[in-house]
Amino acid sequence: METVLEIKGLCKSYGDFELRNLNLSLEKGTLTGFIGPNGAGKTTTIKSILNMIAPDAGTIRVLGMDSVSGDLEIKSKLGIVLDDGHFYEDLTLKKMKNLIAPMYPVWNEGAYQSYMEKFSLPEEKKIKDLSRGMRMKYALVLALSHEAELFILDEPTSGLDPLVRSELIEILKDIVLEENKTVLMSTHITSDLDKIADYLFFLFDGQIILQGQKDEMKEGHAVVKGDASALPPDYENYFVGISKSAYGFEGLTDKKAALKKLLPVNTVYEVPTIEDIMLYYIRRHK
């Protein structure tokens, strides 16, 4: 498949924070979740991709171009939805569009009008009067209207109520499936990615600690629950993390087949959520 984004050996230091030797690649027509706790380095990585900050080391290629030398051409093909919006608050949506559209070599006014209607966005409303969910939709409309190839989203569903979050997730799903676009979605709301992600990169303390295809990652792990007295002496070797109490144990394993040979048949094995996996790996690395 075609590689749309490739990062090799990315490093960046900020005082007591360091992004260390980050490697990441995205394939065309996929949605990749870039997840981790606040302060893990997600925004630093995104700003490096967008050439907003200069890395200390490493290379970034976006749509086959170097992120620095190809900056202007790359940005004409990116759909960027950042947490803080970057819109002029006192402009109406129509005036904001009229300001932005001439900046792009390609602008599809028909697509713009169609998406505005589809997402029920009023052109005469001012940016400052939009809800957070409407701002996210509007940013996506602008990106779709200049026919962006790669969408980079930084916490797009943070602070939204569940109904609006669900609606935005469906929009993103359509962008990938129907438009054959590529999406990198940075978020700490992992339940959204359970529904739509193809690939996952877990970032913690400036390093990628786990990566892979989402379904394979979930199938390769299990949340295990059972009687603590049945655990073998070397049980910690079989778990990413485990907790025990007077009522039994619960843990995350990546060695399910081996455990099934060791533990009683009444032991419970559950498919983990992305949040389960992330929390256990973060605890282990802490």
Describe the structure.
With 286 residues, this protein is an alpha/beta fold. The chain folds into two domains: 3-215, P-loop containing nucleotide triphosphate hydrolases (Rossmann fold, 3-Layer(aba) Sandwich), CATH 3.40.50; 220-285. Helices cover 33% and strands 29% of the residues. It contains ten helices and 14 strands. The chain has helices at 42-49, 71-75, 93-100, 109-118, 132-145, 162-179, 190-196, 214-219, 256-262, 274-285, and strands at 3-14, 17-27, 31-35, 57-62, 65-66, 78-81, 150-154, 182-187, 199-204, 207-213, 222-226, 241-245, 248-253, 268-270. The strands form three sheets. Strands 6-7-8-3-9-10 form a six-stranded mixed sheet, sandwiched between helices. The longest helix has 18 residues, at 162-179. Keywords: ATP-binding, Nucleotide-binding, Transport. It comes from Eisenbergiella tayi. Residues 5-230 form the ABC transporter domain. InterPro entries: AAA+_ATPase (IPR003593), ABC_transporter-like_ATP-bd (IPR003439), ABC_Transporter_VariousFunc (IPR051782), P-loop_NTPase (IPR027417).
